[in-house]
Design goal:
Radius of gyration: 25 Å
Helix content: 40-55%
Number of domains: 4
Largest sheet: 4 strands, parallel
Order of helices and strands: EEHHHHHHHEHEEHEHHHHHHHH
Distance between the termini: 66 Å
Strand content: 5-15%
Strand order of the largest sheet: 2-1-3-4
Number of helices: 17
Oligomer: single chain
Number of strands: 6
Length: about 400
Amino acid sequence: MSKLLFGFDLDGGMPPEGCHGLDRGVVGQEGLLVALESALGLPTPTVGASERSHRFRECLASTPSKDTAPFLGSFEKDPIATSQLLLGLRDDLAIAGWTAEIDHSDAPPRLRALCALETPFWATPAAASCHAGRIRAIRAELENGIPRPDIALQTSAPLEHLPPLWIHLLEQLGATTAPLTPEAALADGQLRAFQASLLGLEPPSAGSHPDRSIQVVTASTPEAAAEALATQHSNAAADRSLLIAATRDRTRLNPRFHAKGLPLVPSRAESGHAIHQLASLWINAQIAPFDPQAWLAFLLHPLCPIPQPLRRALASELNRTPGRSESWSKVLETCLEELVEDADHRKRLTAAFETWLGIAPLELDSAAPNDIAALLAPLQTWLGKRAK
């Protein structure tokens, strides 16, 4: 019997300790599907990403305009990018269990438009070549009485963190969950001292490491790293504002953050130096109409000028209610109530709230050059104080 460890990002990765050997293996999404298709005698789809996008674009062009109205404007300006984006959305829905057979009478217009595209697209080989189509084919073979492959399967993440179709397949295969534990932690040694000397860190504060440097945790799977990061973040002191994680798919953190009552990270990625990002993040957050993703990116930025715990509380409120409302004032009141005995901190939070959250949104169509300068004035003042 072969023993396989399955994880979403483990295709082509180095096996962790304990997974070496002729009868052992580490597979990701593609590796597991290929192994199952080979064991069951199913053909592996040969339709590539470019051909799938081309087929979907043909369906979008040939479907009556009344059925695809929400996408017409974008499709006319850039048919290739629009088709690729909609195909990605379609595949995400499919892996969550969505099909055209579902009743869409009360669905939003965009979802009804995708449903109208699904029927002609499903008639092409490109539809079944995505992971959702391949999983459905494998499950159909198993349900028709084909013997289950002789594989002992472990997953690197709890099943509830996976998309529904993957959950159904792994349960059908009798998969179990491997323990989520980081394999190594550099808690002591020369690395800390070197970091402290490079950064010129201040004297240690209560509850921090003696030299105020960072702890590096490595893990063999992204799921284990996400769990370790969420645990470290939830245990961090309220005034500790910098915690950096490197991951290609930051939304992987959200299930762990949600379970620990932490604000969810935005799905957008930033690049460049942290200080350089603040101006663009601040402008994006202030541009009308209100964009909760832009505000999350600003509030959760490591150098956000809004002090803790206010910015974390505001980010959590945005997760619950993605809009700007009276609830923000209630968030401030709650934070102030928790600081009854710290008048200086209360004053700083109130001033920050008035400075950063009391600005009217910027209407780009009617904005003058002076409006942009006025919008950046609080940030310029804050950066000037920080530089002193």
